[in-house]
Every structure is written in C-alpha cells, then in structure tokens.
Design brief:
Strands 5-4-7-8-1-2-3-6 form an 8-stranded antiparallel sheet. 14% of the residues lie in helices and 52% in strands. Strand 7 and strand 8 form a beta hairpin. The protein has one helix at residues 2-19, and strands spanning 21-29, 33-42, 45-54, 63-70, 73-80, 86-90, 105-111, 114-122. It is mostly beta strands. The chain is elongated and about 45 Å long. Residues 1-19 form the signal peptide. This is Lipoprotein. Keywords: Signal.
Length: 127
C-alpha cells in the first residue's frame, strides 16, 4: 500500500512538472537554407537551439554569417558548418519569454557573396 501511494505521488509530481514546460518550434526555408529554432521554457529556465542547414545544390560553404531577431533581441554571429552542412547553436535567445505561436522571427544567412533573408514561423510539432 505504501509503495502504491509513493508511486502515485511521484506520478503526480512528474505530471505537474510537465505542465510547466512550454516549447515552441519555428521553421523557415529558402532554396539554400533550412532553419529550425526551438525554444523551451521549463519553470524559470529558458533554453534554445538554432539549427541552420545548407540545402542548396552548390558545394557546402565552410563558413557563414547569420543574424536572428527575436522579440527579446538579436544576435549576429559567424559559424562553421560541419561536413553535412549543419550548424547547431545552443542558448541563442538569452531571454525567450516573449515568444508565442504568433511570433515571427527574422533570419538572415550570408555566405560567400550571397545573402538570404527570411522569416521563421511557428510550426506545431506532433508528439
């Protein structure tokens, strides 16, 4: 009986903790780039992952410049793509509290002498 009560108590704690987690995924694509920006807020902890993937036909560029503009600010950086043409950056946003399903995130990717500007839109991910 005590084991069952402890089990129920643990399940309730886990379910309550899961309700405090909010996740948003924003996606944008051009003829050369696919960008996925994920924001997770769990209680008062915020984290984000930005994945930039080269999907163009030409050889994969080694280095890119990128700019992401969120409601809480912007970030401009230079990064190196891996052999698969992917750059992953964690904790991009600093504070992500201003994002929601209506948020549009502006993105720019520059490589060589080219630049593409586009908008990331919220995309509901089925679980």
């Amino acid at each position: 009986m005590i084991k069952r009560a402890i089990f129920v108590f643990i399940v309730l704690i886990v379910l309550t903790a899961c309700q405090n987690t909010k996740e948003w995924t924003f996606v944008g694509e051009t003829k050369n780039w696919r960008v996925v920006y994920e924001v997770v807020m769990e209680k008062k902890q915020e984290s984000s992952i930005l994945q930039i993937e080269y999907i163009g036909k030409k050889p994969i560029p080694k280095q890119i410049g990128y700019r992401i503009e969120t409601p809480s600010g912007s970030s401009t950086e230079i990064g190196l793509l891996n052999d698969q043409g992917i750059l992953m950056i964690t904790d991009v946003c600093g504070e992500c509290t201003n994002v929601n399903e209506e948020t549009e995130i502006n993105m720019a990717v520059e490589w060589g002498r080219q630049i593409e500007l586009f908008t990331l839109q919220f995309e509901k991910i089925e679980e």
